[in-house]
Amino acid sequence: MLLEKLSMTAGVPGHEDAVRDVIAAEIMKYADEIRVDSMGNLIALRKGRKRDAKVMLAAHMDEVGLVVWSIDPSGLLKVKACGGVDTRVLVSKSVRVGPKMIPGVIGGKPIHLQKKEERDLPIPMEGLYVDIGAKNKEDASKMVELGDQVVFDTQFESIGTGRLKGKALDDRVGCAHIIEALKKQHDFDLYGVFTVQEEVGLRGAQVAAWAVNPDLGLVLEGTTAHDVYPTEEHKSSTFLGKGPVIVQMDASMFAEPKLVARLVEVAEARGIPYQHKTTISGGTDAGRIRHTRAGLPVTAVSVPCRYIHSPVSIIDENDFKNAGKLVEAFLDSIDERGLPR
Q: For this structure, is 16 an active site residue?
């Protein structure tokens, strides 16, 4: 399964090389042009039959994780967050370090040795470390280097009834959808843009959008779902099993209303379930694309993900599939009716 391959590949911000290689191999026979810009964004072009417009699909390759900051005398690795990692869930998690994928475990002060006031609070990042089984600093330095990425060692798998579990579903779901979209030729030029460093400030998207200068952009994402009891419905943000999310606004942008309207129209015409977010926290590459050049029309279609920005997330497989159908329907509508005006 393509999504499994993408999920199991390591790539924190600034270390997206392996993810980029997997994607490039997948799209090579469909894209007419493939290039990597100075930031590391992978930009693929599927030329259109008429070449009368430029449409840009964007998804970020990077995932939240850690980076090695220093090695202490005992051989433990001190780390820093790379992206918005929830430190409350890090202790005891299995990880892989560096290009050699060295196995390790995130450790902290044992609960038996903590003072009462320490037990009432999550261990801060400076109190965490990665144990790779090294005897001392010299031993650890033979296995890893400062700046090496640390990724969660999470197995992708199907669980329960129609659910998928894995790491980095934010945003390997979006990467998978773009790969599928590039397999089909349209009248317009279709750009598939796989961005870098989204999790540390939406950095790659702005550079890529400036270079492509599309007529419109559609960001494909994984987004927060907190549809668990007893959360009130309006605080759940999104819900697993209710379809992909058509984003009207978030903390980074107001979506182009004409794009939102077209997405709703094609979803209803093809019987594709969809939902809107009930919260506006968080942001996506759409925020940077929206503010590029003189302002580009953009919105996002997202797959609801439980436990986002943690070592493991869960999505509904039908939501994932329906998001792909919605993207295809949207692109087909541009062939049929032109750009949303």
A: no
